[in-house]
Design goal:
Layout lengths: L4 E5 L3 H12 L3 E6 L10 E4 L2 E4 L8 H10 L10 E3 L4 E4 L5 E4 L3 H9 L3 H23 L6 H7 L10 H4 L3 H8 L3 H8 L18 H9 L2 E3 L4 H13 L3 E4 L3 E7 L2 E7 L4 E3 L2 E4 L6 H4 L16 E9 L9 E4 L4 H9 L10 E4 L14 E9 L9 H17 L9 E7 L1 H8 L14 H5 L12 E3 L10 H18 L3
Parallel strand pairs: 1-2, 1-13, 2-9, 6-15, 13-19
Antiparallel strand pairs: 3-4, 5-8, 6-7, 10-11, 11-12, 14-17, 14-18, 15-16, 16-17
This protein binds flavin-adenine dinucleotide (FAD).
């Protein structure tokens, strides 16, 4: 039997996940990554002993990561030390209210009592809805593209869909379960995990807070980039050829089938199968077809404005994860998605991994990742004045939430605008999750994992089915690898 060669365009989490799975099944795999490092959006920045994750800061569904390691004959625990987050995060409100979102159910139910008896009931009903949605999704959406549900006989599973809320609007469903404006804002935040607005997303996204609560939020000691480093190690053991600084300029075809890729420097690499981990909308351009199908600006998920601060003193007042909310959430999302501008009063997320993991700082100090949502932007880069204005709004939110001033103690600083995020990872506008999830079709009918016209061409990653976010991207790697197993016999 002839060994099949698979070229993967992009060494993001999706590309690495697919590489490991395909190499473990005996294929020769070459990963071509245009950047200097692997990991794509799950990346790292180190300076003066401060180590920052520049992308995800928390993972959910840890079994997805375990599955990947075991598919390669290894054990996650031999590579990574995953720590559960207790509490998951602290929430801070403009009116001075603050509380821990405890991962211990008795503790959380007792916090909810402060808001009135019905809130604990509302929480339990909301989790029950999430649990039912999860049970349906794991048999359908998280395993196959919708069109394959029929073939897999899983369409019957949809009959278990909780109809009353399942097909409604996310925010209205939150309103139906919680009375407190504080709790409504807390649960309204979850669609931002897929770059979307709670006011425009379907209620099916209630599966996200359920997954986080039921299975926990996890942090790998040493930082999220340890996941990428472990996958790179695993890929090397499996003899995957990992090529950084190798941008693919074209996908080559012989008739209706792919036959390889050509790199920007002209080098040709022959392949039986090509997997696109970069933006799926770039594929037509790489195939030499006119009119690349990049997402329309109105279809894009949010981007972010990220500040990385190495602070020279410890900040015991901070949790590992803290969310400082804006005053008017609806207005914030109108600004992001309708006016397409940076919010006048942004909600700010502060990730301070050094609060629980001192290996990411040089002795004293904190490594802070400070992020506000921002609209995707493929217009001009923000100028200095725009960045300074956005920074002052971010700092105003933090000061209002009682965070002690720290700017005079900053020893390392870096800023990532939507445009910089987009340019670094070759994704239009820096839209972190590809398309937003507004409406049922957008949320569930993501681009397919197998090209419908060109044989031997597949897709993996957040821009394709089932969507963005670290664990979901690894599920996409599993789906794509299974499709290759099914359709590409050696
Ligand atoms: C600031 C930020 C915060 C985030 N927070 C979270 C979080 O808390 N939790 C979570 O689950 N997720 C989070 N995410 C999202 C998560 O990082 C992504 O969903 C996931 O990492 C995407 O992986 P991917 O493989 O789909 O794509 P990418 O990481 O984008 O990888 C694609 C790779 O393809 C390469 N490429 C593209 N075109 C070419 C070409 N022509 N030739 C060669 N290489 C090419 C790119 O350089 C890139 O490295 C965050 C992302 C960011 C940026």
């Amino acid at each position: 039997m002839r060994e099949q060669t698979v070229v993967i365009i992009g060494g993001g989490l999706g590309g690495l996940g697919a590489a490991v799975r395909l190499a473990a099944r005996g294929r020769r795999v070459i990963v071509c990554e245009s950047g200097a490092t692997f990991g794509g959006k799950m990346n790292t920045f180190e300076h003066s002993g401060f180590r920052f994750d520049t992308g995800p800061s928390l993972i959910t569904m840890p079994w997805v990561f375990e599955d990947l390691f075991s598919a390669a004959g290894s054990r996650l625990a031999d590579h990574l030390e995953l720590a559960p987050m207790h509490p998951i995060s602290e929430y801070v409100y403009p009116d001075g209210m603050r509380f821990d979102y405890s991962s211990s159910l008795p503790e959380w139910l007792s916090t909810l009592e402060r808001f009135g008896r019905s809130e604990a009931d509302g929480f339990l009903r909301f989790m029950e809805l999430g649990a039912r949605l999860f049970a349906v999704s794991r048999e359908t959406f998280l395993r196959y593209r919708p069109r394959d549900w029929w073939r897999a006989g899983e369409i019957a599973g949809l009959r278990r869909m909780p109809l009353r809320f399942g097909w409604g609007n996310y925010h209205r469903t939150v309103e139906a379960h919680f009375r407190s404006p504080h709790l409504r804002q807390l649960y309204d935040r979850y669609p931002t995990y897929v770059g979307s607005s709670p006011y425009q997303s379907p209620a099916t996204l209630a599966v996200i807070p359920y997954i986080e609560y039921a299975f926990g939020g996890w942090y790998p000691q040493g930082g999220l980039y340890r996941i990428v480093e472990s996958l790179v190690e695993l890929a090397r053991v499996l003899k995957v050829e990992l090529r950084a600084g190798a941008r693919v300029a074209s996908i080559d075809r012989a008739g209706e089938r792919v036959c390889g890729v050509t790199l920007e420097d002209g080098e040709k690499i022959r392949a039986d199968v090509v997997v696109m981990n970069g933006d799926a909308g770039d594929a037509p351009g790489l195939l030499g077809e006119a009119g690349a199908k990049s997402l329309a600006p109105n279809d894009r998920s949010m981007s972010g404005l990220v500040f990385l601060f190495g602070v020279g003193r410890t900040m015991p007042e901070l949790r590992h994860h803290t969310i400082f909310f804006s005053e008017d959430y609806r207005r914030e999302f109108d600004e992001l998605f309708v006016e397409r501008k940076f919010p006048s009063d942004p909600t700010v997320y502060v990730n301070a991994p050094s609060r629980t993991d001192r290996s990411v700082v040089p002795g004293e100090g904190e490594a802070l990742f400070v992020m506000a949502n921002a609209p995707a932007n493929d217009g001009d880069e923000w100028d200095e004045a725009q960045i300074a204005e956005a920074r002052s709004r971010v700092m105003a939110t933090l000061a209002r939430g009682g965070m002690k001033a720290f700017e005079n103690d900053v020893v390392v600083a870096d800023v990532w605008t939507p445009r910089r995020i987009g340019a670094k990872y070759l994704m239009p506008g820096g839209a972190i999750y590809g398309a937003h999830s507004h409406g049922w079709r957008k949320a569930f009918l993501r681009p397919p994992n197998k090209d419908r016209r060109v044989r031997g061409l597949y897709y993996v990653g957040g821009g394709t089915h089932p969507g963005g976010g670290a664990p979901t991207v690894l599920i996409s790697a599993q789906i794509t690898s299974e499709l290759i197993e099914r359709y590409e016999k050696s």
